[in-house]
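Reopening closed ticket. The problem is back. First fold of the pair:
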Amino acid sequence: MVLIARLHKFLTATVDRTSRSHTIFWLTLSLTFAVLYAILGLKQAFSAEYMVQDDARQHVFWMMRFVDPELFPNDFIANYFQSVAPAGYSTLYKLAATVGIHPLLFHKILPLFLGLISTYYCFGLCLEMLPVPMTGFIASLLLNQHMWMTDDLASTTPRAFIYPIFLAFLYYLSRSSLLPCLGAIALIGLFYPPYALVAAGILVLRLLCWKNGGLCLSGDRTNYLFCTTGLGVIFLVMLPYALDNSGFGPTYTAAEAKQMAEFAPDGRNAFFRPNPKDYWLTGRGSGMFPKSLFTPVTHCVALLFPLLLFLRSAFPLANQIQRQIWLLLQLFLASSAMFFAAHATIFKLYQPGRYTAYSLRFIVVLITAISLTLIIDGVCHWALKNSTTFDVKNLVALITTATIAIAVVLYPCLVEKFPTVGYVEGKMPDLYKFFEQQPKDILIASIAGETDHLPTFSQRSVLVAKEYAVPYQKGYYSKYQQRINDLIRAQYTSNRTVLQNFINQYGVDFWMLDRNAFTLEYIKDDGWLNQFDSTPEASLSLEQGKIPALASAMTSCAVFQNEIVVVLDASCIVK
């Protein structure tokens, strides 16, 4: 009984009933696990010379302009991704480059610091809702496991910053710390603008309260102060996006997008799905609930939370839950409102699912941590009640607590590939070095899959690449479609004049071909190529036995080749 009593006190002691060192212990343990997971991620990031996170190929490659302004001159793709990069995001990378940290290095080490900041604020926010240090540890541990079992954090794209910055906003809001809260709101708008609208929704919802069985305006002046100042900051940071004149807009309308193969169920950016369940609930981009919501699976414990509250007499620690927990409901309502608003204005507010994905993850993490704490407290309380010796009740309490501890702490050991960070390795170092040795203003034409790596590993411009086929803004994607249709047509035409005109029109310097590029299977097996209008024409030409004009140049104009690709000199092709 003494053992259970001590264990119960150590695990479930509230902040006001324990020493400050007790809280520091659990916070330090939380940060330790955050560092441990980050080290495992860094091990993958630096496991090869040519290694990059998948999505970073889109969002980071153009930032090498910060190191060398002569890179990617007049590059249509680089200009687009630079234009859509949030101001805070690009400024942070620019500052790192200024002090000598290369963007490709910075994107690998940044997750460590984002993870630590997220851990700190998750721990603090959880204590505002249930002031038990162990609960903060469980919440931060579950959050870190989730962040390293999905690729959001490791991507170091703008969405990676949602974890530390939005958690900071929720933390300072729950503590009614005005200036830090406003600072966090500004950072949300500068790093991940869509969630500034979620923050605005929360601030407005806090003006309402439930009283005498109905909704009424809050009588707390603090809520009005936070709302007015917070909305003012949001207006200022969002104004540049509203006045965007980059020339890459506007976004496609719902009617236009429904006619595009890219958004079809089997398209690369599948959005419009015939099954309403998939479309509204679980579909990527369109659904309210991300499929990774209960990753790790221990998050399922959150589903028990209503039952634990209903049986609060058996779980006395439930009485220590603070009113700040209502912030989670406000977060859910604000995110849901933006979810439906994004559906009503397809793509103008970006993907609807982005507004609920992170909010629901925060909610599930915090509710799971609180639920696990209530269960541990309830079992220990039950074992201590009317017990004088080490009996069956004590054994059950120990086994339950040990099981929860093992499941929470050691869960990553059960995951086949942990952490799951989405790093991709470039397998053609000689190819990258070849292009890197060419002039900085060259343009490479290719539909080969290896083209995705060239801007990142060779710092040279490509005409098109699958990785950069982002079909949301007309000003960008209509020109992108034109480029790839022209490229496919030129690659498979038997008319040498068409081929020469294409090279001269776009100023192509090199043409990279897969060795099997002129086989019918090459085109038919590539689902991405089959989304474009000129592909059927190319297939028909090959079926009719016509030999592409480019085929003869694979021998006479080759300047680099390996077992997979051949690089041709465009000036040789023209001659």
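Second fold of the pair, where the issue appears:
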Amino acid sequence: MKSIQEKITLLTTIAILIVAGIVGGTSIFTLSQAGDFYSAQILNLTCQTEANAIDRSLLDTEEAVNILADYAVERLFSVEKLANDDAYRDSYTVQLTNLFANIAENVPGTVSYYVRYNPEIMPGDSGLFYRRDDLEADFYYEQPADISAYESDDMEHVGWWYVPVHNGEPTWMDPYYNALVDKKLISYIVPLYENGVLFGIAGMDIDFRDMENRVEAIKCYDTGYACLANEEGAVFYNPNFDAGVTMDEMDMTGILSFESESNGVEPLSYTLSGLHKMLAYKTLSNDMRLVITAPTSEIMYMSNRLMKRIIVSTIIVLLMFFFLTILVSRRITDPLKRLAHVAREINDGKLEVTFPKETKDEVGDLTHAMEKMVHHLKHHIDDLNSLAYHDSLTGVKNKTAYDDAASKLDMQEGEKEYGIVVFDANNLKKINDTYGHERGNIYLQNACRLTCRIFKGSPVFRIGGDEFVVILQGDDYDNCYKLLRDFDVEAERHNLETENEWEKINIAKGMVKYDPETDSNVESVFKRADARMYVAKQKMKLAEMG
């Protein structure tokens, strides 16, 4: 154990050596390893972030139309009855209208939604069509146009019918002008088949001008901007070029390719009108490329700024060590003052305290003893909290813990990225009544174990007798759709290996992501997820009845 005098002498001697090491080493290492590289990565990070934001809207549209399409196929009695029975067709259309109206209200950016029947076997104007003039207005019904009145190559009037029907699969339409509504749109359309027979389509339209505004608002560096293009680089939207302009028609040099999913780790370099620039791009869900570009001089400006900061830091460090010897004596008494302050905070009930760094002397021994005391106190308090916030049957967090987590999310400021998955264990009452509550408990525990195993990066809560909630976060949020598929696969595998009904996993679920434009709090997100869970539950009941 060194004496106080030895510490003062040693610290004064080492100070000059530290200055030389920090100034020289930091300058060389930081400039050579970090400067240019990290400046350029801002393009990639901005592009990834903005693409994810746009994709959330596109994926919501896909999910909404897919839900309606699945419902339309499941509820159809037969294509023949739909084509030949006017009363049945009207009743069936009303069912689709009611569901689609509820879904469309929760999908931001939608300006119209529709279900149209095959004009080859039904009247050309049959189906439903709702639109609104702007995103703040309400949807209103409009008589569907007669598809049979137009030629199949009339893209402005009926391209939305013939393109997805020709593809025979769900289709994202490239931006196109729709003469029927006098707007430029992007559309997601799903052909509807029953036993291989096409009986219609279901689709949603997004006002492309709204997407242009979102892209136009993206800023990167001083004069950087964002644009939209196809896989060949032809322009969908660019603040400096008209739609349809190709790279060959621009005053551009350099080798650019947009065929991959993204540009990879390094931004792509090119020259436009004599100005050297760099770009990053990311493929969106509808196969458009979001491109962000900026002049290289602006991107590398960060490296020069870093150099200035290092010079200033070096001067500050030298000044700090100039006064270091004078301040050494205070280092002897400051730890004791901080320990006294920590002791007062502990006495007031605050356990999240910051101790001074331990030293190899008497002050260090005292600090260590106090840290151990606080550690034991926290351990006992954590045990009490665990009992209060966990469900005794399943071991996951309970309704109280969920309410606390929801409150914290609502109070969180800034950007929020989370989702809610609502699970409902089907037939719990039947199992309890038929096999007893002990086996009903086994049924719930199996469901909970699978939920925790799949969503291992997110908290799981049991908020009711047969209801669980997962708050998606981190990697689980980013990979939520894959995890939902994994859940279904694992549940099916488990059920194939299990004979007893109470050991099987039979769960309805609904998932939504927080959208700041539509959700005011966690409760709003929960209600949307609960509604989707209810739709899924009804489907499962219908499947069991079938």
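Update: turned out to be a display glitch only; the data is intact. DSSP finds 16 helices and 16 strands in the chain. The mean pLDDT is 86. Please close again.
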